[in-house]
TrEMBL record:
HAMAP family reported in the protein's UniProt record: Thymidine_kinase
Source taxonomy: Bacteria, Bacillati, Actinomycetota, Actinomycetes, Kitasatosporales
Similarity comment: family membership: Belongs to the thymidine kinase family.
Residue ranges of the TM segments: none
MF terms (GO), sorted A to Z: ATP binding; thymidine kinase activity
Main location: cytoplasm
EC numbers for this chain: 2.7.1.21
Source organism per UniProt: Streptomyces griseofuscus
Name of the protein this chain belongs to: Thymidine kinase
Keywords (A to Z) from UniProt: ATP-binding, Cytoplasm, DNA synthesis, Kinase, Nucleotide-binding, Transferase
GO biological process, one term: DNA biosynthetic process
A GO cellular component annotation in the UniProt record: cytosol
Residues the entry annotates as binding substrate: 170-173, 184
Superkingdom as given in the UniProt entry: Bacteria
Length: 216
């Protein structure tokens, strides 16, 4: 049975790497994939992983109908055995419905990859629709870690290392950004709730208030 599968996790947990591996394994066996992406850090029309691999992809536009795109490709004699959609959190809910239709009406597997929640721990609309429609939601096996060593489950947006909670839902960026820049850090829920990033935890540990009291 063809499936709509949502591979979800925090930022930096290996989603794009897995997407590239699925693409590699299937194309190595002569299967043809259609790869969609949106707002990849490597630029328009790219699917990239932090491991350095990158491949060309179709950059999805705002109002693009993904079902029609796939049907057009097939009717022009193209072949599509599976679809990969990376950065799927940035797709509109209606585009997720179109991907589900690709599975149901065309019998093509769709593998979608994305983060579930934003920096405020609210669902992205595209991810919400994926959770609602997917045949399976798969959490990636290689877990990203919070600075405390616990499994990271949440994405924090940072400015100069400090967590911020105001701003637009979509700001393309990366983890480990230079000081002063807008970046992201993955945290466990406990530290996301307390807005405690690696930098603020380090600063708190160095604060004189928490140094051991001298006996002299
Ligand atoms: N220098 C490195 N050596 C080994 N693994 C790395 C290195 N840099 C990144 N990674 C791996 O790549 C993962 C990020 O992969 P990526 O596909 O870009 O993540 P995602 O798409 O989920 O944001 C990290 O969690 C880590 O496992
Ligand atoms: C939490 C959060 C993330 N983003 C952006 C930042 C990155 O460009 C992508 C996630 O990419 P990754 O391959 O999973 O690392 O999403 C955003 O726009 N808004 C957010 O709240």
């Amino acid at each position: 049975m063809p499936e709509l599968v949502f591979f979800s996790g925090t930022m930096d947990c290996g989603k794009s790497t897995l997407a590239l591996q699925i693409e590699h394994n299937r194309s190595a066996r002569g299967l043809a994939g259609m790869i969609f992406t949106r707002n990849d850090r490597a630029g328009a029309g790219k699917l990239s992983s932090r491991l350095g691999l990158v491949t060309d992809a179709v950059e999805v536009a705002d109002a693009q109908d993904l079902y029609v795109y796939v049907v057009d490709h097939l009717s022009q004699g193209g072949r599509i055995d599976y679809v990969i959609a990376d950065e799927a959190q940035f797709l509109a809910p209606v585009q997720i419905d179109q991907l589900a239709r690709v599975v149901d009406d065309l019998g093509v597997d769709v593998f979608a990859f994305g983060i579930t929640t934003d920096f405020r721990s609210k669902l992205f609309p595209g991810s919400q629709r994926l959770v609602e429609l997917a045949d399976r939601v798969e959490v990636l096996q290689v877990e990203a870690l919070c600075w405390c060593g616990a499994r990271a489950t949440h994405n924090a947006r940072t400015v100069g290392g400090e967590m911020v909670v105001e701003g637009a839902q979509v700001v393309v960026g990366d983890v480990n950004q230079a000081a002063g820049e807008v970046g992201y850090e993955v945290l466990c829920r406990r530290h996301h709730r307390r807005r405690m990033t690696a930098a603020t935890a380090r600063a708190a540990a160095l604060s004189p208030d928490v140094l051991p009291v001298s006996s002299s």
